[in-house]
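Subject: design request, 195 residues
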């Protein structure tokens, strides 16, 4: 009888402890963390959103977007059509026929809008997507390769476009990690002011 009471007591303790942990870890901790984030860095806590002059959200500096107009800098290829609801991409091996076909399509699209830039000079990040399919950055070389096309279409001198790319080139994280990169949305917003 005493053993049975001990088991029932243990089950009650386990249930109470589980409810307490669910309350603390599932509700109080996330609320506290959200509150601290809103106070310390509200812009980042709200998704690093970018607004137009009317105060409308036009994107996030953390999520890549498609730019159909060839007068603007193009982002990396996205196998998920820049759908921010989910991320990920097909992790194709270099020998995969679907990857080869997608790269060939990207090369054909590039040649159609950039006939003056040889394929040999084309940075690979304009032909391949990132692991998430949502990377908002391209390399400075990928931005540079697009300058002749954009200059012809917009009338903005190439030297001015190079300066624009240079202004938007971000360095390595903490000076140590990653590579220099250019946020395409921010670059295009600045370009739009000059057109």
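Subject: RE: design request

Done. Sequence follows.
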């Amino acid at each position: 009888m005493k053993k049975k009471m001990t088991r029932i007591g243990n089950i009650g303790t386990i249930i109470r402890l589980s409810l307490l942990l669910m309350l603390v870890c599932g509700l109080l901790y996330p609320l506290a963390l959200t509150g601290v984030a809103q106070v310390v860095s509200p812009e980042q806590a709200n998704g690093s959103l970018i607004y137009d002059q009317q105060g409308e959200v036009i994107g996030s500096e953390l999520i890549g977007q498609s730019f159909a107009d060839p007068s603007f800098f193009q982002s990396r290829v996205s196998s998920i059509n820049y759908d921010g609801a989910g991320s990920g991409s097909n992790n194709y091996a270099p020998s995969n026929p679907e990857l080869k076909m997608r790269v060939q399509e990207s090369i054909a699209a590039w040649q159609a809008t950039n006939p003056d830039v040889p394929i040999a000079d084309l940075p690979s990040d304009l032909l391949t997507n990132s692991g998430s399919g949502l990377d908002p950055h391209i390399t400075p070389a990928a931005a540079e390769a697009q300058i002749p096309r954009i200059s012809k279409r917009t009338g903005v001198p190439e030297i001015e476009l190079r300066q624009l790319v240079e202004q938007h080139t971000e360095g390595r994280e903490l000076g140590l990690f990653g590579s220099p990169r250019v946020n395409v949305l921010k670059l295009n917003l600045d370009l739009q002011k000059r057109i």
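Helices lie at 2-40, 42-45, 97-113, 140-154, 158-167, 184-194.
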